[in-house]
From TrEMBL:
Molecular function GO labels: cytochrome-c oxidase activity
Name of the protein described by the UniProt record: Uncharacterized protein
Membrane-spanning parts: 6-33, 45-64, 76-98
InterPro entries in UniProt: Cyt_c_oxidase_su3_a-hlx
GO CC annotations on file: membrane
Keyword annotations: Membrane, Transmembrane, Transmembrane helix
Entry superkingdom: Archaea
GO biological process, one term: respiratory electron transport chain
């Protein structure tokens, strides 16, 4: 049986969403692994995991559980609602992680600006001389 081009567009779009959100989730997990004290990295990893799950709800139900790409209106509303809730939860966790990233500073009492290299913003002329 021939598959319509709309189905292939659906599969490609969801595959793209899965790969991009999985890569972002892995990068966020790697950042958390490198800095386990930063809870914002853990929260962002969980947020990206919810986005991955949200992106998988409809294609998995439609192509694996139902094994048909024609869904009734009720099934479509339920799967889109589940997908929307998971995506909203993931984006909400990302928003929380971004807005609370700087609030977890070290408690050593040292100013974070003193640990920066004083020559950080100087132009290195030797790199650009031919």
């Amino acid at each position: 049986m021939s598959r319509p081009p709309e189905l292939w567009a659906f599969i490609l779009a969801n595959t793209f969403l899965f790969f991009i959100s999985s890569i972002l989730m892995l990068l966020s997990f790697y950042a958390y692994y490198q800095n386990p004290r930063k809870t914002s990295y853990r929260v962002s990893t969980i947020g990206f995991a919810f986005i991955v799950l949200g992106g998988l709800v409809e294609p998995v139900y439609q192509l694996v559980v139902r094994v048909d790409y024609n869904m009734s209106g009720t099934e479509l509303l339920i799967t889109q609602s589940c997908e929307g809730v998971l995506l909203a939860l993931g984006l909400g966790l990302l928003f929380y992680a971004i807005t609370h990233h700087d609030s977890e500073r070290s408690t050593t009492g040292e100013d974070s600006t003193t640990s920066l290299d004083p020559n950080l913003y100087e132009f290195d002329e030797s790199r650009y001389k031919h």
